Task: structure prediction
Amino acid sequence: MRFFIIMFLFCFANTKAQETLAFAQEVEAISKKYDTVWDSSKETIVFTGSSSIRVWKNLETVFPGHQIVNSGFGGSQTSDLLSHTNELILKYNPKKVFIYEGDNDISSKKRPGRIIDDAQQIITRISKFNPDTKIILISAKPSMARWHLKRKYKRLNRKLKRLSQKNPKVDFADVWSPMLAKRKVRQDIFVDDGLHMNNKGYDIWYSVIKEYIE
Result:
């Protein structure tokens, strides 16, 4: 029995190490990209979080006149962003930060309370670094692939909204509601995997996010 326990712990630790390494490589690639294009003398808006941010390829185009840093990293959870807050957020001393996390957390069976704890730690780190930075928490989105988890996502969104109400420097951007049609998730706003959005989906996000940009 002891042998099997040791093997289980070894395999678990090895898996976590591989995940950490994978994110470290992606984070390093993001840093190298913006080392060549980011202008530290200009005000910066950071968009970060999981793949819904990472694959929003035209952020700079839809928000012209702003220096945008897209530091999204695919497959990430809130705890991963917490681990890489310095490299993905604080490094750019942003005036605003848009955060999309929680989607993968819920899918991985994390409890909303734990997600909120990690989100609060991220907010605290940002605020300590620069008390003037505005933080916008983007709600978890509905999706075809994860519609069976809708109640858990809605619960998380309620908690994210309450978290934002505790801090005048934090806002909550609701993308959940406009992505629905008659209480069902729209099916014309996703790519084939039913999880990631197509241009129509990002048009909806743009209509919500633009209110928090200026």
